[in-house]
């Protein structure tokens, strides 16, 4: 049985943005906020994962508190910001950042394994997102997860290790 969230998620992923906006605009923001899938993810997760910029901007601009959507954790405490870093989408990452207050403590945004956004970016080869985080000093560069691993350790052990070790110059 397909529920309302699943129906909207498919629509969001398949649309060009404009048609999804028209459909979503018929729903009240309170209805959209409450919609989640079995993993605890809202529609912003789906739009970020599908790299749907127009829909992301629509969901954030039609919300009184975009921070609550951007930092809304799923059941594993992963946020849409983690997902943007993981999917190597610097453009989406910047859009999400632009809707956060300047005083947002990104170092406190960790998943259930205490992995930061920088861990996700480094592990998945999202060099541009790593550069944004490091150059703008958004968080410490060496946070440790529950396995005592830093983002650079993840980068070095991934397929992107050689590239990172040569290019990543930490302050």
From TrEMBL:
The keyword Repeat applies. Coiled coil: none annotated. Keywords: ANK repeat, Repeat. The keyword Repeat applies. It comes from the Eukaryota. Gene3D superfamilies: Ankyrin repeat-containing domain. SUPFAM superfamilies: Ankyrin repeat (SSF48403). It holds the Pfam family Ank_2. This is Uncharacterized protein. It comes from Panagrolaimus davidi.
